[in-house]
C-alpha cells in the first residue's frame, strides 16, 4: 500500500482484539462483532430522500464487516424536526413520505444483501433548529421553555447565536403530543421499510436532551421540575416507539452530558443523578444505551476511573455502547482544527469490553475515512490517515 496514503500502526503487537469480534445477542438481532458505525450527519439526501449514493455508502461498511450500522440522524414525522443548525445543515434525510421511505427501502435492502444490520437514528433538532428553516419553514422551532439556552460557552458562529436569541413560545401539551406521535409514526415507518431496530437521538442538546437538561427546561408542569419530570418526554417517546415496533426489535438511546451549547455541561453530576436519568428510560423500553462522550476512555465522575459508559452499564444492567475518539488522536470538535492522526487504541477498547465495562464500541470518523476500517483492524493492516475531506463525501 502506498505509504503516502496509509500509516502503519506500531503498537498493536501482542494486543488481543478477540473480545471485539465476539458475537452479541440483542433482542431479535445477532450482532457478529462489537463494532457499530456511529451516526454521522452526511447531508446528501436532497428533499429528504436518500439516493443510490447513500445506499452505497452504507452498503460498503456492511460489506467490510461492521457489526451494526446506525444511520445519520433522520428527521422524524413532525414539522419542526429538521432545519439548519449551527453548521447550516441541509439535505437531511427524512423518515416519512413515500419518496424518502422508498429511498430507505433501497438502503436496507442493500445493507441486508451485504450481510449487514442497520437501524435509523430518529432525530428531532428541537432548540438547535434555526426558526424559519427546513422542509416546513413556517413551523415554529420547539423548545421546552422557549429559550435556546446558555450562550456564554457555545462554540458556534455569532450569526447562528444571534438567530437563536429570540425567545419562542414554550411547548404546549399539543406540541408534546405531536412530537411523541411523530416519533412513533417514524418508528413504524422504519419497521415497514426493513430497518432492524430503532436508535433515538436523545443527546447533545437536541429536543429530547433539552428536556433532560435543567438549563433549557424551566418548566413547572409534569414535563419539567425534578429529574423525574424532565425525563418524562423521553420515556413517553420510548414507550410509543416500543408500541410501534413490538417486543422484538431493539431500541437504542443516545445519552450525553455534553451539549452543542456547552461541551462541559452535565445532566448528571453524580452516579446517583445518572441513575435517576437512565432508570426511567430503561423501564420504558431501552435495550441499549449509546453513551456519547468526546473521548470514550475519560472517567465519568470524579473519584473513579470508570467511564461514563461503564457507569451506565453498572447502574442499569443494560447493553451499553461507548463512543468517542476510537482510532484517532483528537475528539470530533477539536479535529476540525487539523492535526488529527490515526492511532491504535483498540487494545484499550478490547480490554474494557473483556472486563464487562461496556459491550459495544461505536466508530465514527475512522469509518468515515475508510469503509474497510473494521476489516483492517481484524487483519492487522495499517489504517488510512485521517482527512478532513472525509467530512464532505460519501466514500
TrEMBL record:
Record has NADP as a keyword: yes
Lineage of producing organism: Bacteria, Pseudomonadati, Pseudomonadota, Alphaproteobacteria, Sphingomonadales
Cofactors named for this entry: FMN
PANTHER family linked to this entry: NADPH DEHYDROGENASE C23G7.10C-RELATED
Pfam hit, one: Oxidored_FMN
Protein known as: NADH:flavin oxidoreductase
SUPFAM superfamilies assigned: FMN-linked oxidoreductases
Gene3D superfamilies reported in the protein's UniProt record: Aldolase class I (3.20.20.70)
Signal peptide segment: none
Amino acid at each position: 500500500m502506498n505509504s503516502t496514503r496509509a500509516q502503519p500502526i506500531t503498537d498493536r503487537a501482542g494486543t488481543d482484539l478477540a473480545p471485539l469480534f465476539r458475537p452479541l445477542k440483542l433482542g431479535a438481532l445477532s450482532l457478529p462483532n462489537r463494532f457499530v458505525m456511529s451516526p454521522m450527519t452526511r447531508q446528501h439526501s436532497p428533499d429528504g430522500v436518500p439516493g443510490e449514493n447513500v445506499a452505497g455508502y452504507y452498503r460498503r461498511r456492511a460489506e467490510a464487516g461492521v457489526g451494526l450500522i446506525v444511520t445519520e440522524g433522520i428527521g422524524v414525522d413532525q414539522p419542526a424536526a429538521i432545519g439548519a443548525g449551527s453548521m447550516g445543515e441541509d439535505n437531511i434525510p427524512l423518515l416519512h413520505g413515500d419518496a424518502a421511505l422508498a429511498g430507505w427501502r433501497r438502503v436496507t435492502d442493500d445493507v441486508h444483501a451485504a450481510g449487514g444490520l442497520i437501524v435509523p437514528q430518529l432525530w428531532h433538532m428541537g432548540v438547535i433548529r434555526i426558526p424559519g428553516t427546513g422542509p416546513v419553514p413556517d413551523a415554529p422551532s420547539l423548545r421546552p421553555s422557549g429559550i435556546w439556552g446558555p450562550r456564554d460557552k457555545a462554540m458556534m458562529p455569532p450569526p447562528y447565536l444571534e438567530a437563536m436569541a429570540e425567545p419562542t413560545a414554550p411547548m404546549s401539551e399539543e406540541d408534546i403530543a405531536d412530537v411523541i406521535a411523530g416519533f412513533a409514526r417514524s418508528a413504524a415507518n422504519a419497521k415497514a421499510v426493513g430497518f432492524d431496530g430503532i436508535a433515538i437521538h436523545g443527546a447533545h442538546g437536541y429536543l429530547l436532551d433539552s428536556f433532560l437538561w435543567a438549563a433549557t427546561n424551566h418548566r413547572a408542569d409534569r414535563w419539567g421540575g425534578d429529574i423525574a419530570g424532565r425525563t418524562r418526554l423521553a420515556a413517553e417517546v420510548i414507550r410509543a416507539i416500543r408500541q410501534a415496533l413490538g417486543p422484538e426489535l431493539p431500541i437504542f438511546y443516545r445519552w450525553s452530558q455534553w451539549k452543542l451549547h456547552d461541551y462541559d455541561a452535565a445532566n448528571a453530576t453524580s452516579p446517583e443523578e445518572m441513575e435517576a436519568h437512565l432508570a426511567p428510560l430503561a423501564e420504558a423500553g431501552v435495550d441499549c444505551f449509546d453513551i456519547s462522550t468526546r473521548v470514550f476512555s475519560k472517567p465519568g465522575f470524579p473519584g473513579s476511573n470508570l467511564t461514563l459508559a461503564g457507569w451506565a452499564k453498572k447502574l442499569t444492567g443494560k447493553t451499553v455502547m461507548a463512543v468517542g475518539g476510537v482510532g484517532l488522536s483528537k475528539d470530533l470538535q477539536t479535529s476540525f482544527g487539523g492535526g488529527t492522526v490515526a492511532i491504535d487504541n483498540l487494545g484499550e477498547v478490547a480490554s474494557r469490553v473483556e472486563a464487562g465495562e461496556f459491550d459495544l464500541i461505536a466508530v465514527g470518523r475512522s469509518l468515515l475515512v475508510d469503509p474497510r476500517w473494521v476489516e483492517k483492524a481484524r487483519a492487522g493492516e495499517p489504517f488510512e490517515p485521517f482527512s478532513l475531506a472525509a467530512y464532505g463525501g460519501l466514500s
